[in-house]
Q: What sequence folds into this?
């Protein structure tokens, strides 16, 4: 097995990798995330690749470096992490009572070889009252998460349904990644 490096500071991604028994090191990229593309799939793949390239330049041969980036997409518009509590409330109001998508881009680099993909999951929210939104923001949970919520936390109570990979919503499509690794090792 190659040396695996997770180029992400996200505690959720670390948990998911640990859950499936991967052995890896964490080396987060400190590159600033600037979304320049309108197309969400292109945007997350570009950012994931930027994070992986940043770390791949500092690693030894034989290291597989993996970067990822997650955004929420509502009516074609990208929602990243909220800038402040008011921004989080705006995002949650937008997501209330409807369906949105989560796009996670994943970029893998091994000795200059690159593989990049994007996984999409659809999530539907129940209607949220202003009081629920305020209470949720008061927990502090929305602030470091795309779209202002965490499906793995209290926002579990907002979810009417989900179509696709749950772990993709949490920030990393683990099964598709492992499938890619198996094919790569052949
Ligand atoms: C929608 C949603 C997002 N998130 C999180 C996953 C990601 O950590 C975060 C999106 O931010 P990202 O910019 O993808 O990742 P990050 O800043 O946490 O880490 P790094 O840049 O070092 O790779 O939102 C959840 O944890 N649960 C959810 O339900």
A:
């Amino acid at each position: 097995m190659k040396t695996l490096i997770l180029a992400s500071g996200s505690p959720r991604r670390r948990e998911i990798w640990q859950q499936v028994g991967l052995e890896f090191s964490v080396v987060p990229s400190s590159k600033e995330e600037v979304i320049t593309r309108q197309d969400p799939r292109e945007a997350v793949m570009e950012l994931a690749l930027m994070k992986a390239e940043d770390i791949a330049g500092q690693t030894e041969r034989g290291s597989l470096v993996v970067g990822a980036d997650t955004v929420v997409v509502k009516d074609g518009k990208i929602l990243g992490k909220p800038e402040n509590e008011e921004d989080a409330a705006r995002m949650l109001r937008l997501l209330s009572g409807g369906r949105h998508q989560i796009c996670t881009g994943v970029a893998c680099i091994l000795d200059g070889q690159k593989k990049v993909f994007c996984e999409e999951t659809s999530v539907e929210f129940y209607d949220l009252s202003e009081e629920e939104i305020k209470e949720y923001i008061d927990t502090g949970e929305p602030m470091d998460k795309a779209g202002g919520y965490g499906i793995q936390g209290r926002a579990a109570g907002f979810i009417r349904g989900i179509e696709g990979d749950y772990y993709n919503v949490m920030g990393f499509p683990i099964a598709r990644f492992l499938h890619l690794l198996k094919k790569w090792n052949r």
